[in-house]
Amino acid sequence: MNKKQKKWLLPIISSLIPVMLAFIVGSFLIMLSGYKPLEAYSALFSGALSGKIAIMNTLFATTPLILTGLATAIAFKANIYNMGVEGQLYLGAFTAAFLGFTLQGTPPVIHVFICLIGGALSGMLFALIPAILKAFFNVNEMVVTLMLNYAAILFTTYLASFPFKAPGASNATTIDILPSAELPRFFQGSQLNGGFIVAIGVFIMVWFLINKMKLGYEMNSIGRNIEFSEYVGMNIAKKIIVIMSISGIVAGLAGAGEILGTHRRFVSEFSPDYGWTGLTIALLGKHNPVGVLAGALLFGILKNGGSSMELMVGVPRSLIDVIQGLIILFLAVDFLIHHFSLVTKLKERFNRKKVA
Amino acid sequence: MDELLIILHSTFRMTAPIALAAIGGVFAHRAGVLNVALEGMMLVGAFTGVMVSYLTGSILIAVLAAVLSSMILGLLFSVFGITLKGNVIITGLAINTIVLGLTAYILQVFFGQRGVFSNPKIIGLEPLDIPILRDIPILSDILNNQTPMVYVSLLALILAHFVLYHTKLGLYIRTVGEKEEAAYSVGLPVNKLKYISVLIGSFLCGLGGVNIALENVTMFVEDMTVGRGFIALAAIFSGQGTPIGTFIFSFLFGFADALQIRLQSLNIPGAFIQMIPFLFIVLVLTVVGIISVRGRTSRGIKNE
């Protein structure tokens, strides 16, 4: 195995082990509740992947997860615990909806762009609060972002249930956005829409940022050793603000995309924890954009297949949450590299054979 | 005046679960273990409390089972976060997610309910009428006729303060948190002390969870802790890890909660009032941050 191969292979294996372990523990849970694990899992995967419509729906479920996963990964790569993706997503979503139903007479494509940019900017501005507090006053960003999540969800709920409530609506929703602001759906029978293109575009940009730009290198360096990075002359405070802003932009886009492509109006508490799932995905993908893409796809499959598993076999889809939690738990302990040093042992054995 | 007394009475009621989790969390915080799993530990306590109360009809067994389930979770957290040296933040988040999924899963598979479980057979916690307290004018309006957990939360505050600052165990725990290397070098059982700290926290989280589910509503709702564990975590940070400070901030949250319930009945948007405690915490952390940055001589950002 040459060095380049190893660089690719190691993270993949160390991400696959937690996933496999989680599925194994999950299968015990399925057995305990009187179902057959193999049946449940095959219903899960075939529900998500068999047929054109199923695959498109899986990609539809993947769309917001790519963005929240990337948003989290950008911050986590620099060891900044931005747990506020959920809140940034909500503000981005509301801004996009607001621009979507107020700007009458805007040409279609331009309108969509304005809404996306507005959503991205409001996500960024909201992420700036914890960023500035962290950069200048060393306030723990994790607690601040967690608190601001609740504030953002409550604030948008307030907006959608009082000043901007759709007339006659029974729950907290705004009026529909104008057709010119809608991200178009691609095919009949699937909700897959232009949001997917946005997500892929952001993925390419983030990949480029992390792998090819100076900032990406600096993010990596801050994440590995913040003191060293400061000694070699990086302006850490500024970098934290820039990194958090980018993270907020991506989170805001996730919210905007969901509104313009899926709901077409703001619905209070519409997100089924996209931010949290994005966090899992970022960890699973080792903060690497390609890894995030793969992780998002896995969770898209789980999400889309979960309902057919419940329908066909009867296993509740909350199993997906359990599996998600187990994946995070097993990811927290890096089995491969730090603790049991499986690889080193294998390598030693391999080398010994070669010598013999 | 009466209005104020009613709000203060319900403030103590709303404070109890937050304060229990937060005071419990203080121990792990002081031992240098960031316990994000307070939320999950409370939720599992709420769930187990309701289920066992329904199955046995005994509130005592229900409380014990809730505490036990929460402590099992504390053990799981400790094994992964302390013994296996996993990232504690990630371990904590994992536990929260697992509990959220598992409670919903068990509810659906074994009890045939989706999202909510309520049944007349669930026995709740009854308010206590305390003889001496009853006769003290204002205090009785505020503190009498509360559920047992309110008194337990006050007791926990006193005990936590005493244990942390006046016992050897407290001294050891603080040593581990402040200088782990020093603790090792004088031969303290660092991991054991961390385990104890986390388990004290999960014990109190179990009680807090039971209180949420069984004090007023006697039912279980999916994700019914709605972030109280994270609020407790914020209270610890704002109170700088002291039991008294932590309790004060828990109390402020309880007050905002009580106020919001009251204002909602007056048709003032509740969501708006509910935001205040969260923004307040951010403000407090900012002020604390500004003060500590001013007093700092070393340059740059220290990673926590």
TrEMBL record, chain B:
Pfam families from the UniProt entry: BPD_transp_2
Membrane topology annotation: Multi-pass membrane protein
Chief localization: membrane
One function term, GO molecular function aspect: transmembrane transporter activity
Keyword Membrane: yes
InterPro entries, alphabetized: ABC_transp_permease
Lineage: superkingdom: Bacteria
Keywords for this protein: Cell membrane, Membrane, Transmembrane, Transmembrane helix
Subcellular location(s) per record: Cell membrane
PANTHER family recorded: GUANOSINE ABC TRANSPORTER PERMEASE PROTEIN NUPQ (PTHR43370:SF1), SUGAR ABC TRANSPORTER INTEGRAL MEMBRANE PROTEIN-RELATED (PTHR43370)
Protein name as it appears in the record: Sugar ABC transporter permease
Upper classification of the organism: Bacteria, Bacillati, Bacillota, Bacilli, Bacillales
